From TrEMBL:
It comes from the Bacteria. It comes from Dyella marensis. GO terms for molecular function: DNA binding; sigma factor activity. Residues 30-96 form the RNA polymerase sigma-70 region domain. One of its GO terms (biological process) is DNA-templated transcription initiation. This is RNA polymerase sigma-70 factor, ECF subfamily. The keyword Mitochondrion does not apply. Keywords: Sigma factor, Transcription, Transcription regulation. Belongs to the sigma-70 factor family. ECF subfamily. InterPro entries: RNA_pol_sigma-70-like, RNA_pol_sigma-70_dom, RNA_pol_sigma70_r2, RNA_pol_sigma70_r4_t2, RNA_pol_sigma_r2, RNA_pol_sigma_r3/r4-like, WH-like_DNA-bd_sf.
Length: 194
């Protein structure tokens, strides 16, 4: 852990202590600090924004209730990601992962889009990630997207480090095999291939 990570964890620990004492401002601060990160992470479990929002709220409800029981065996971020992961799996069992109509999710407000994003590349990678198991997507997101160590991921997913390594290995092999096929598929759809 670098110095910035150590400082961030110390701040998070202080917020947890305040939450354990009933400080709602500390809860709001921690929520704002983790909301985006958890949203990106949970998007590897489900594409349903309504489920993601529900899981984030459930995660922080549990964090609020259990703040006083945090033992400090891991970083606070690892503890929160673990709660979110378990809440996400529970939500998938309850709701499934069937996408619902975008209009029903956003009502009159459309989702925001960054015009500089390369939508074709995101679509291509998204299709490749969809071909992985949920556990493989989660491991990739935690290691490469969020930057957790393999030991942290093992704590979050409540499995041995060897299992995390195996999931990461199989995810990379699968992506290595799938991405070229999907690139050929994209070219064919764009009219670039016969």
């Amino acid at each position: 852990m670098n110095e910035a990570d150590i400082e961030a964890d110390a701040t998070d620990r202080a917020l947890l202590q305040r939450m354990a004492a009933g400080d709602r401002v500390a809860l709001a601060t921690l929520y704002r600090g983790y909301n985006g990160r958890l949203g990106r992470f949970l998007s590897r479990l489900t594409r349903r924004p309504d489920v993601i929002e529900e899981v984030i709220n459930d995660c922080f409800w549990i964090a609020w209730q259990k703040a006083g029981t945090f033992q400090g065996d891991s970083r606070v971020s690892t503890w929160i990601m673990g709660i979110a992961y378990r809440c996400g799996l529970k939500a998938l069992r309850q709701h499934g992962d069937e996408p619902i109509e975008d209009d029903a999710l956003y009502g009159d407000r459309a989702p925001s889009h960054d015009p500089s994003e390369d939508h074709e590349l995101r679509d291509w990678l998204g299709k490749a990630l969809d071909r992985l198991t949920v556990d493989q997507r989660v491991v990739l997101e935690l290691v490469y997207g969020v930057g957790h160590s393999l030991n942290d991921v093992a704590v979050i997913m409540q499995c041995p480090v060897g299992t995390v390594k195996a999931r990461l290995f199989h995810a990379r092999v699968r992506l290595r095999n799938v991405l070229p096929d999907l690139a050929g598929e994209s070219s064919a759809h764009a009219g670039g291939a016969p």
